[in-house]
Design a protein that fits this description.
By secondary structure, this protein is mostly helical. The chain has a domain of 130 residues. Helix content is 60%, strand content 4%. A hairpin with a 3-residue loop joins strand 1 and strand 2. It is globular.
Length: 435
C-alpha cells in the first residue's frame, strides 16, 4: 500500500510541477489571450480567472508590509489560507507563494486512494487516486490556476480518512484546519456529529468537539480582538450584519469583493474593455480576463435561461438523490454522500445571496462520490461528470453535475452496499479497539 501511495503522489506531483512551470513561463500573468487558445464554438468557456494574481498575491504583498487582514486588507477567507502562502512568498517571491496550493492538491490524490480503500477494492481505489492526479478538471483549477479550494480539500479528505480509521481526535484537528482555510466546509459539521455519536462514547465526542472549537477560536482570536466586526463580516461574506468600520487602507486587490467576486469590474482597473467573450481589466502589470456568462453556443439559449431551467431541474434531482441515499442510510458511505448533498445545497443558497456558482467551488463535492465508488461503472461516472461540467457555463447549472454524480453512484453502488455494522468490523480488524 505504501508503494502505491508513493506512486500516486509521484504522478500527481509530476503533473502539477509541470503545469506550475508552464504557468510560470507562459501563463496567465504573462498576457496570453486564452480566448484564442481555449475557447471555441463548442466550448462555452473554462473559468480562466486570475484570482491568484488578482486577489491572493496582492493580499500577501500587503501582508508583508505589515497590514492586518480584515482590518486593513479586504480579505474574505479565514486566516490560514493567506498565512500559508506568506512564508513561501517571503522565501521565493510570487511564484513560490503558489506552492501550498498545488502541493496540497497533489497530496490529495494519494489520500483519496487511502480513503477509497475503506469502500472498495485496491484496484478501484488506485484508479480513484490516479484519476484525481491526472484529471483535467482538478489539474486546471488547482494545478494550473491555483484557486483557493486547496488546501481545504486536502485537509477535509484527510480528516475523513482519519475518521474512518478510528482516529477521532486527529480527525477533529484536521477538520478545524480545513475550516480555517475555507469557511464553507463548516456546513458538513453535522456529518461529523452524527458519526461521532454513532461510533464513539459521548466523552470522545465532546473532547473532539472541544479540540476543533479550540483550534478555530485560537486562530481566530487575534482578529476577533483587533477587528471583530470586520472579521465576522468578511468571513460570513457579509451575511452577519456587522457594519465595517472605515479601514485605514483599502486593499487594491479587491474592491466590492463582497458583491460578485472574481470579476474584472470588482478590481481597481486602469482600463476596462469588452469583447464578445470577455471583460478585460488592465490591472497593474497584467490583464485580468473575466469569462462572461454568455458563451458562443448559447446565443439563442442564453446563460440566464440555462440558469433558470437548472433551478427547476435542481429541486427534483436533489429530492431524488436524497431519497435514494436515505434508502441506503445504513451503508457506511452514507454520511460522506450526505456531506456532498449538504455542500451542494449550501452552494445553491449562496448563489442567491453571494455570487454565482463557479465550478471550482465543487472540488470537495466531486471528491466525495469518487472515494465511495465501488463499481467500475460508478467510478467511471464519478470521473467523467466533473469533466462534462467543463463544457457548460458557470452558474446554477454547475450544481446539477454533482447531484447527478451522487445519484448515479448511489444507484450503482447498491449491489455492493456495506452496512455500518460491516464498517465497525472493518475498523476493529484494521485498527484495533476504539481508543
Amino acid at each position: 500500500m505504501r508503494r502505491t501511495f508513493l506512486i500516486i503522489l509521484a504522478v500527481a506531483l509530476a503533473s502539477r510541477v509541470s503545469l506550475a512551470i508552464l504557468q510560470f513561463v507562459y501563463g496567465i500573468n504573462f498576457g496570453l489571450n486564452f480566448d484564442n487558445y481555449l475557447y471555441g464554438p463548442f466550448n462555452p468557456g473554462l473559468e480562466i480567472y486570475r484570482d491568484f494574481y488578482g486577489y491572493y498575491l496582492p493580499q500577501v504583498v500587503e501582508l508583508s508590509k505589515g497590514l492586518i487582514p480584515y482590518k486593513e486588507i479586504i480579505y474574505t477567507y479565514p486566516p490560514l489560507f493567506l498565512y500559508s502562502l506568506y512564508p513561501f512568498y517571503k522565501l521565493g517571491g510570487a511564484f513560490a507563494a503558489s506552492f501550498p496550493i498545488w502541493f496540497s492538491d497533489a497530496a490529495t490524490a494519494p489520500v483519496i486512494y487511502l480513503l477509497a480503500r475503506q469502500f472498495t477494492s485496491p484496484k478501484l481505489s488506485l484508479i480513484a487516486g490516479i484519476s484525481y492526479a491526472i484529471s483535467p478538471f482538478f489539474l486546471l483549477y488547482e494545478g494550473y490556476l491555483w484557486f483557493s479550494s486547496q488546501p481545504m480539500a486536502f485537509f477535509i479528505v484527510l480528516s475523513l480518512y482519519l475518521l474512518f480509521t478510528n482516529r477521532p481526535y486527529w480527525s477533529a484537528v484536521l477538520f478545524a484546519v480545513a475550516v480555517l482555510f475555507r469557511q464553507e466546509i463548516i456546513f458538513i459539521f453535522p456529518i461529523y456529529v452524527i458519526w461521532y455519536l454513532m461510533h464513539y462514547p459521548r466523552p470522545v465526542f465532546f473532547r473532539a468537539l472541544a479540540i476543533a472549537s479550540s483550534i478555530i477560536l485560537m486562530v481566530s482570536l487575534p482578529f476577533l480582538i483587533i477587528s471583530p466586526g470586520e472579521y465576522l463580516y468578511m468571513v460570513s461574506y457579509g451575511i452577519i450584519p456587522t457594519a465595517v468600520a472605515g479601514s485605514s487602507h483599502v486593499s487594491n486587490s479587491t474592491v466590492n469583493i463582497l458583491g460578485n467576486s472574481a470579476t474584472a469590474s470588482s478590481l481597481t482597473c486602469n482600463t476596462i474593455s469588452d469583447t464578445w467573450r470577455s471583460q478585460i481589466c488592465n490591472y497593474g502589470n497584467f490583464t485580468y480576463t473575466d469569462t462572461k456568462l454568455l458563451a458562443s453556443w448559447t446565443t439563442i439559449f442564453s446563460a440566464s435561461f440555462i440558469d433558470f431551467i437548472s433551478i427547476w431541474i435542481f429541486l427534483p434531482l436533489f429530492a431524488a438523490t436524497l431519497y435514494n441515499l436515505v434508502r441506503l442510510r445504513k451503508d457506511r458511505g452514507f454520511l460522506i454522500l450526505l456531506g456532498a448533498l449538504i455542500m451542494t445545497a449550501i452552494l445553491a443558497m449562496l448563489s442567491f445571496e453571494i455570487h454565482q456558482i463557479y465550478r471550482y467551488y465543487l472540488i470537495p463535492v466531486y471528491i466525495m462520490p469518487l472515494v465511495i465508488s465501488r463499481t467500475k461503472s460508478s467510478l467511471t461516472l464519478a470521473i467523467a461528470l466533473p469533466l462534462a461540467s467543463l463544457v457548460f457555463p458557470s452558474g446554477f447549472v454547475q450544481l446539477l453535475f454533482p447531484l447527478l454524480d451522487c445519484l448515479l453512484v448511489v444507484i450503482l453502488n447498491q449491489k455492493t452496499s456495506f452496512t455500518l455494522e460491516d464498517n465497525e468490523q472493518h475498523l476493529s480488524i484494521t485498527m484495533g479497539p476504539n481508543s
